[in-house]
Amino acid sequence: MMTEPGQLTDEDLLERAHQLRLLALRGHADARGLAHAHEREVRRRFSGQTTMSATLEPTPPRKPFWRFW
């Protein structure tokens, strides 16, 4: 029985995600879904930024490098 990705240590999760992705690339039938689940957990744990912290304000327009008159 395979341990759920959320129950693994960081090192084990990274190693298993890498190994499962290699198996998926070699054509193993069930490895693609498992690799995706492990990679999703890696992104959840290690992503530092979310879109919730992004500003919704537009950036101010830049001044042109030339002067009109």
Order of helices and strands: HH
Proportion of strand residues: under 5%
Q: Rg from C-alpha positions?
A: 21 Å
Mean pLDDT: 85
Structural class: mainly alpha
**Strand tally:** 0
Discrete helix count: 2
What is the first-to-last residue Cα distance?
75 Å
Q: Major sheet: size, sense and barrel closure?
A: none
The coarse overall form would be elongated
In words, what does this structure look like?
9% of the residues are buried. It is built from 2 helices and no strands. It is elongated, with a radius of gyration of 21 Å. By secondary structure, the chain is mainly α. The model has no long low-confidence stretch (mean pLDDT 85).
Concise account of the structure shown:
The chain is mostly helical.
Write the layout of secondary structure elements.
Layout: H1 10-25, H2 31-46
Output the keywords.
single chain, 69 residues, mainly alpha
